[in-house]
Structures are given as structure tokens and as C-alpha cells.
Amino acid sequence: MHIYRPNEPVNGRIARNDLCTARKAAGFVRHVEIDVSGTNLVGQVRPGQAFGIIPPGVDDKGRPHKVRLYSVSSPTRGEDSGPPGSVIATTVKRTIDEDWETHKLFLGVASNFLCDAQPGDPVLLSGPNGKRFILPASPDQHDYFFFATGTGIAPVRGMVMDLLESGCPSKIVLIMGSPYATDLLYHDYFLRAASEHPNFQYATAISRERQSDGHDPMYVQDRLRTDRDRLVPLLDSDRTLIYICGLAGMELGIFQQLALVLRQSAMENYLQVDPETLGDVKSWSRSMLHKEVRPTRKVFMEVYA
Ligand code: A2P
Q1: Looking at ligand 1, which residue's alpha carbon is closest to its atom 5?
Q2: I need a labelling partner for 99 at 20 to 30 A (CA). Which of 40, 114, 269, 277 fits?
Q3: What is the pTM of this model?
Q4: What domains are there in the chain, each with its CATH number?
């Protein structure tokens, strides 16, 4: 970690910058690859960690922009577009908003800088950051259940690539949630990976449209109900780790659904719940998390507002 501090960043170069969503998607998300060859970041950046971007220029008070952290979506071996470990990637959503008071358009500084950057452009980097939300040291001793919403898929892409490409025989389930089917990220890659690797199952949860399998609009946790027979056996196993990445709030619904579909001894692998709280799962709230409802060490979370 912290090979380069934000006050002593290093120069990388944009290697690729591709649209990640379908052309008609509601949001704009890009897969941005950065060549770090010649720096000490080569081979040192893992999916689940983040790296810092220092946007060029100054803010409205004339001060240099502060560092922003972006989640690594590349596998540990790096992207295909360079020598091993020398091209890292992130998955960036353009931030576009309207100021409530002035009605002026607000464009997120770093996300729009990255989304507009062209191959060859220089970019100032720091990092890597983060040591908790990563794969375990001995990956084949576990099975994996990933829940991701939106750009929360970034670390999951790199982790799934790390697991599948190493020939790890572990069972892996990924449930990816997005508003519309056009907003699913890396969908073609995951479909192909699932068809090529019998140990990898991929399911989607579309929140504002009917599912392609006919189910009503749903959130990621609802797949535990609709696909119970195929998903619950994996969660029943002592080997399984749960990774949750995406919108803050998603963990509550997932925990509630785990408590509803799993027998108590299996649920206790993932959650420690006060006995008086257990009877009334549907009324759990976020304020109970880390108090009455506590995730165990088998649950890894990276959620953001
Ligand atoms: P929705 O916005 O329809 O309520 P994105 O980041 O691309 O907007 O995608 C985030 C996805 O996560 C959307 O489908 C969003 O649904 C969904 N979502 C929002 N809140 C939750 C929640 N509490 N639990 C699970 N999924 C959620």
C-alpha cells in the first residue's frame, strides 16, 4: 500500500478508454485503462484496492485539486493491453448533476477528467490503497458469493478474473444489479466466463424492468428468493465468503434476505444477530447494522453513497 502518496504522485498514461454500457444506457460508465509501466506500481495493484487520481488544474478557490480514489477493476496480472501488471483499470461513472439552488450543471471533476481522457494522455496517480476488501491469501480454500450494484462491479470483475484465470476450482456466484439491462457492466465478459467455467454462475437483477427470465423488477438480494434452490446451497457451506460492493444501503437488504432464506446455523456464518432482533427481520434498519446485526469476518463490504 501507499507506494506513492498523493503529495508525491507518479505519472501514468491512459492506455484505453472505452464505453462500458450499451449505447442507450441511462448512465455513462467507462472502462479506463492506465499504463503504469516504469513505475513501482507494476504488479502491485490488486482488484478490491483503489488508486488515487489527482485531476489537473485548480478548484474554484485556486487550489490544486485533491486526490480522488478509484476502485481497481483490473485483475492482478493487469489488462491485456500491456506487459504483465503494467496496465491497471478502473470503472468510472460520469457524475452529472444539477445544483439545487442555482440550477447550474455540475460535472464531477475527476470522473469527467477520466471519462474524457484519451489514450496517451498523462495522469497523476497515487496508491494503491486498501487492504481489507481483497481476495483471501489461499483462494481455493473458499467459495465466493459476490453481490454488486452499478460500478460496484469494478473490484468483482478483477477478482473473478483472478480466480478463474488461476484455475481456482472454487464455486463462484455473482449477482449484478442495475436499473436497466442496458446498464449492466462487463455483461458480455461475465456471460462468456459463465459458459466457459462450470464453477462460475452469473445472474442479474434489474430494478426498473422485468427480468429476461420473466421475474418482476428486483434488487440483487431478491435473487436469493427467486433462485433459491440453486443459490442457497452455496451459502449453506462453511467455505463461503460473501463480498458486497455498491450502493450504501444494499447490505441491509442482503442481510435481511440471508436471515429469511438460510437456516439459522448457516446464517450465523455471516451475521451475528441479537436474539430479540431475529424474530422481526422485515423491520431491520440501517441503524441496527454493527449493533444488533453484525456481519462476521466472512462478509466483505465496500459500499458508498
Ligand atoms: P433503483 O435505482 O432502481 O432503486 P446504478 O449505480 O447504476 O444506479 O445501479 C444501482 C442499482 O442498485 C440500481 O438497480 C438500484 O435500483 C439498485 N439499488 C438501489 N438501492 C438498493 C438497495 N437498497 N439494495 C439493493 N439494490 C439497490
Answers
A1: 150
A2: 114
A3: 0.96
A4: 10-129 (2.40.30.10), 139-304 (3.40.50.80)
In whole angstroms, what is the distance from residue 285 CA to residue 41 CA?
A: 41
* 95 Cβ below 6 A of ligand 1: no
Query: Reading across the β-sheet that carries 200-206, which strands appear in turn?
Result: 200-206, 172-178, 143-149, 240-247, 299-304
Counting ligand 1 atoms within 8 A of each CB, the residue from 219, 250, 301 with the most, and so the one to mutate, is 219
CA 164 – CA 176 distance, rounded (Å): 17
* Ordered per-residue pLDDT tens for the chain, 305 residues: 999 999 999 999 999 999 998 777 778 999 999 999 999 999 999 999 999 999 999 998 999 999 999 999 999 999 988 899 999 999 999 888 888 899 998 888 999 999 999 999 999 999 999 999 999 999 999 999 999 999 999 999 999 999 999 999 999 999 999 999 999 999 999 999 999 999 999 999 999 999 999 999 999 999 999 999 999 999 999 999 999 999 999 999 999 999 999 999 999 999 999 999 988 999 999 999 989 999 999 999 999 98
Secondary structure (3-state) at 123: strand
- In angstroms, what CA-CA distances link 248 with 182, 257, 301, 305? 22, 16, 10, 5
Q: Whose CA is nearest to atom 25 of ligand 1?
A: 250
> In angstroms, rounded to a whole number, what is the distance separating the alpha carbons of residues 263 and 177?
25
In eight-state DSSP terms, residue 46 is -
Tell me the C-alpha distance between 106 and 98, whole Å.
5
